[in-house]
Write a structure and sequence with these properties.
The complex is a heterodimer of chains A (346) and B (80). Chain A is of the alpha+beta class and 346 residues long. Among the domains of chain A are: 4-113 and 329-343, 3-Layer(aba) Sandwich (Rossmann fold), CATH 3.40.50; 141-199, ATP-grasp fold, A domain (Dna Ligase, domain 1, 2-Layer Sandwich). In chain A, 33% of the residues lie in helices and 25% in strands. Chain A is built from 12 helices and 14 strands. In chain A, the strands form 3 sheets. Chain A has a 6-stranded antiparallel beta sheet. Chain B has 80 residues and is α+β, with helices and mostly antiparallel strands. Chain B has 3 helices and 5 strands, in the order E-E-E-E-H-H-H-E. Chain B has helices at residues 28-38, 43-53, 58-74, and strands at residues 2-3, 7-9, 14-17, 23-25, 78-79. The relative contact order of chain B is 0.20. Classes of the chains: A alpha+beta (346), B alpha+beta (80). The interface between A and B is small, with 14 and 9 residues.
Chain lengths: 346, 80
């Protein structure tokens, strides 16, 4: 039997990291004996492409915004060479296109474990208030802003400080109107419309990574408390915790949506003691390796679900397991970088 | 009034609350208070024990104990 070939995106292990390196690292420690990791990158400076113990081979992909045909053509080209069994897309901005072309990829023999388009749409940031109400979660007041005028009218309902959030990524604390307007333009330019203006709630931030089987069952779930947060709002250190309320939130989310695949809930326990749902990410987070190290290999379960197998059941995870992210200067030969930049593969 | 379940206190005075993920450093006196709370002692029991063990003014101790219990509640180490 030939090796399993898994293509993984999100190899941008930067200060705003994608999950790809953590996913590949988890799979290296999974029950799969032999497999190859194909790194999918959107830039030739994505560190995962140069990490020899993470990726076996890497390819540059066109941005999904260049269109479905261009994207699919590139995947077809790579598949002819690598014979991919599974793709694990890890970036919010590419998930929509992968859901749309899932059938075509399956015809090519490539399998994916993804939520449905309805599930994906239901948790969009701008739909969070409706979603929360339907599911019984407390959600901070959120307003969808396509223009500065929208932001100014949201001021009628919000008091400063507020949080300004990009359509896909990034969140900033805005203490006053001028700051909010600046963030509005920056986020609009970077991630497109809408930008979300959200009520600021003071409290502790918690994240939960989990997997749903598409039938309403929560297969695994690990909650984490952010111990150090970067200026981009990313966890730079965190610790696994045991909190029944967080576990119940994940269970309720999966039962109600019948979620298929990985997800991350971002929650905040306000100083008032109320647990607020801040965001739902339709994929694994960059800190997913912490869950693996604590005993729940979520990427392994995603591969099993994609293959149509029953996912491994993990009895428990270790509470109090910490991760501390760090930066490391990798040294790469110019020829290697040049080849990847010009040929788009290495 | 109970200590939150899943709290870990080690010999060096490091406290980890496994429910919230928060951690704290505490001194020897605070460690004694947490030990006594773990044994089911009331706030009055703890106050009396500290008064007998330490050379401290009663009024000053009362204020310190009140402050410490306020912090324990604030950080959700002590729950009602």
């Amino acid at each position: 039997m030939r090796n399993l070939v898994v293509a993984i995106s999100g190899m941008n292990a930067t200060d705003n990291p994608g999950p790809g390196v953590g996913v590949a690292r988890s799979l290296r420690q999974s029950g799969f004996a032999d497999f190859r990791v194909v790194g999918f990158c959107y830039g030739s400076l994505e560190p995962g492409a140069y990490m020899q113990d993470i990726t076996d081979v890497s390819y540059l992909l066109p941005f999904p915004s260049e269109g479905m045909v261009t994207f699919l053509d590139r995947l077809r080209y790579i598949h002819e060479r690598e014979h991919i069994d599974i793709i694990i897309p890890n970036l919010d901005a590419e998930l929509f296109i992968y859901i749309k072309i899932k059938d075509k990829l399956e015809e090519m023999g490539i399998r994916l474990c993804l939520p449905t388009i309805e599930q994906f749409d239901s948790r969009q940031k701008y739909r969070l208030p409706d979603f929360g109400e339907k599911m019984g979660f407390s959600v901070p007041k959120s307003f969808r802003c396509n223009t500065v005028e929208d932001l100014l009218s949201a001021e009628n309902e919000l008091r400063y400080p507020i949080m300004m959030k990009g359509n896909f990524y990034e969140a900033y604390y805005a203490g006053y109107r001028e700051q909010a307007v600046t963030y509005f333009w920056n986020l609009l330019a970077k991630w497109g419309a809408p930008v979300i203006a959200q009520q600021y709630i003071s409290g502790g931030e918690f994240n939960v990574v989990g997997v749903g089987d598409g039938k309403g069952n929560l297969i695994s779930c690990v909650p984490m408390h952010k111990q150090f947060i970067t200026d981009k709002g990313k966890a730079w250190a965190g610790v696994t915790i045991k909190d029944d309320q967080l576990m119940d939130s994940a269970r309720r989310f999966v039962e109600t949506t019948r979620w298929m695949g990985a997800f991350e809930l971002e929650l905040l326990r306000g100083d008032d003691g109320v647990l607020y749902l801040i965001e739902i990410n339709p994929r694994m987070p960059a800190w997913v390796y912490l869950a693996t190290a604590a005993g729940e290999n979520i990427p392994e379960q995603i591969v099993q679900l994609a293959l149509g197998e029953t996912p491994s059941q993990f009895d428990h995870y270790d509470v109090g397991k910490m991760f501390i992210r760090y930066s490391w200067d990798m040294v790469v030969n110019q020829s290697e970088f040049g080849q990847f930049s010009v040929k788009g593969e290495k | 009034m109970n200590l939150v379940s899943g709290m870990i206190v080690n010999d060096s005075g490091y406290v980890f609350n496994s429910m919230t993920g928060e951690s704290f450093s505490i001194n020897q006196t605070a460690r004694l208070v947490l030990t006594l709370l773990g044994e089911g002692c009331s706030k009055t029991d703890i106050y009396n024990r500290l008064l007998s063990e330490y050379d401290v003014e009663a009024s000053s101790l009362e204020a310190d104990v009140d402050d410490f219990f306020y912090l324990l509640r604030k950080y959700r180490i002590l729950v009602d």
